[in-house]
Design goal:
Strand content: under 5%
Low-confidence stretches: none
CATH superfamily of the largest domain: GntR ligand-binding domain-like
Shape: elongated
Radius of gyration: 19 Å
CATH class of the largest domain: Mainly Alpha
Number of domains: 2
Strand order of the largest sheet: 1-3-2
CATH architecture of the largest domain: Up-down Bundle
Mean pLDDT: 89
Number of helices: 9
Distance between the termini: 33 Å
Structural class: mainly alpha
Order of helices and strands: HEHHEEHHHHHH
Amino acid sequence: METEIKGLSLDASSCKPLREIVFDTIRSAIITGDLKPGQRLMEVQLAEQMGVSRTPVRESIRKLELEGLVKMIPRKGAYVTPMSVDDLREMMEIRRALEGLAAELAAINATQEDVDALFEANDLFGKAAVKNDEEGIIKYDMDIHEIIYRASGNIKLVQMIHSLREQMQRFRAEYVHRIEDKKHLVNQHMEIIEKINQKQSERARLAACEHIHSTGDDMLKKL
């Protein structure tokens, strides 16, 4: 068997069907970078390491192709889709529009409980930034945006953002690792949160768009 790949241990405690566990495991390994961009996905190797048959692995690869995380090359096989500058630019353009809409709707629909949760999450984000806790930074950043998505009240919008966010995750981890001063992100989050709290929907949208635009430009420079 070839060199063992990290991140391919199945969650034995999960109540999900085996095919879903296999899919989640391979997907997570791609997003976290355990399966590298451009790496070939060998069905036999993946199946043996996870202790399953090739069928759920093959099904997972097909689903991952639909998500854009895997690319099928005729007569060569399946490969983890490489991360390109063009991919990042296009995703940030779409994300800017979607995040702006989410913030705008959140300013209209957010409850006081949502707003309190946003302030708390940004406070935790700031503390993680000071300590340069990369795992904490990623977690609390996602928490902030997730609260905004939920507060928007638009389920279809949330589904679209989630699909895009998962593809962005490979870029996010590398970006957080490379930036030194993360305090400006705290201030940008606060600007969005304050506008949501003040029920200023248009200004919330503009603040969210500017945050994503600024982050996208910085990611393009650093990655």
